[in-house]
């Protein structure tokens, strides 16, 4: 009997030591820190942008790092045949080294004279993580257990600190997000079949809405960049477009400008909300999501397809039937650029995936596929439901990595070309895209679609003095920033409510009146600026100053 018990005890001891016959053994450890470190790497970046980013935006990154941490932990446990403190410590070495790569090895890269790719520091990084792993494997059990406890404490602090910041921000400023209520905004819209509305005969036309970020007016390009785009504008007019040649953006920032376009009104509701602080972008992003234009068109049978940019405001629309941003979101891009993927992707061949972390989130990987998919939507004809297509092209918005014919430059090539010539070349490329899209959309068989083409703002004035509130800048600099391209194509030519100064806040009011027989009032075309990023809802009306400029020029 004693021999049987002894044999049984021996077998249990062998199991605890991790005998291959018994599979992976379990040691006394609490493997929290590998996973806390992984989540902390994401939460730390979130904590730096709480006025723009919510847990919805970081969810993909959190899910990704937890999966990564799990694979690392299980892989090391498989190699060591043990789930113990040593496995947890080794896992954290590689998880921290990979996910905090920029923070840990970025300074080394600078000392080595490296560049944006962080490739030069890569051998040292792997050597450091390998040496630490070897040190842990050769350390006594007591030291390992102490290190495990210490790492749990450090990881908990790194995890709880940004989590507390997010909770505190939500407590203090979260209510400001509710300044815009999509249901309340939609409730004021006319419902189908009410009033004097006239439904289009048969299938309503598709609507294509293209925003070319920072595309200025013809006059601004000629006067300040020496660029003549009259051929592009004449082409649009020859195809039946109405050009609002004296149009100005309603606001000088993308978020405000697009929000007012989709809200079909000015943003007074945000300025009047006492719960909304001046640096909180989240209400604007909500207005770019579940907006009046989408609600109106979806109620009339339209499918909504959004081709967004990497920017948080247009990357994903929660009410769209389809989102096709082609690339990482702004948060995911910034996060992944801080990880080991950045130097690894630069070492690997130029595949579509590896280029996604390149300059400006692989902008050269985004535009061409989006153009091809937009064309394909038109080619499918009228066998499906009508579509509202919104596309936000960051052209001629910087960074300037396109040539005038659409070729993609490296970061070094673009810097050698210079920002001014880069802006000119990307404006030419944007003009080429406009002509290409218009010809494709209007030359297909079937009823022609509605096409709206406009900018959300103009370029930043080269002479602008940083730190000066926008309302205090010279009038000409405000004109550079707000004078925009703005063109409309309505198949029936119902341009009665359009004029040379029509601004985007009225675009869908005019479109819906012409297409659906609504009776939206046409608002005065006005332009507002805000002082800076800390006063996003302090609106200054500069309309009179902009209108005075042509008179002053004539007098001179």
Which terms would index this structure?
556 residues; alpha/beta; seven-stranded mixed beta sheet; two-stranded parallel sheet; elongated; disordered N terminus
Which SSEs are present, and which pair or pack?
Blueprint: H1 2-16, E1 25-26, H2 33-47, H3 55-80, E2 82-83, H4 85-99, H5 101-111, H6 122-137, H7 141-173, H8 182-187, E3 207-212, H9 218-225, H10 230-238, E4 242-243, H11 254-263, H12 268-271, H13 282-287, H14 292-298, E5 303-307, H15 312-315, E6 322-323, H16 330-336, H17 341-347, H18 359-379, E7 387-393, H19 411-417, H20 419-443, E8 450-454, H21 475-482, E9 486-489, H22 507-516, E10 528-529, E11 540-541, H23 543-555
Helix pairs in contact: 2-3, 2-4, 2-7, 3-4, 4-6, 4-7, 18-20
Give your account of this protein's structure.
The chain is of the alpha/beta class and about 550 residues long. It is built from 23 helices and eleven strands. The strands form three sheets. Strands 4-9-8-3-7-5-6 form a seven-stranded mixed sheet. A two-stranded parallel ribbon has the order 1-2. Strands 10-11 form a two-stranded antiparallel sheet. Strand 5 (about 305), helix 15 and strand 6 form a beta-alpha-beta unit. The longest helix has about 35 residues, at about 140-175. The model is unreliable at about 1-20 (pLDDT under 50).
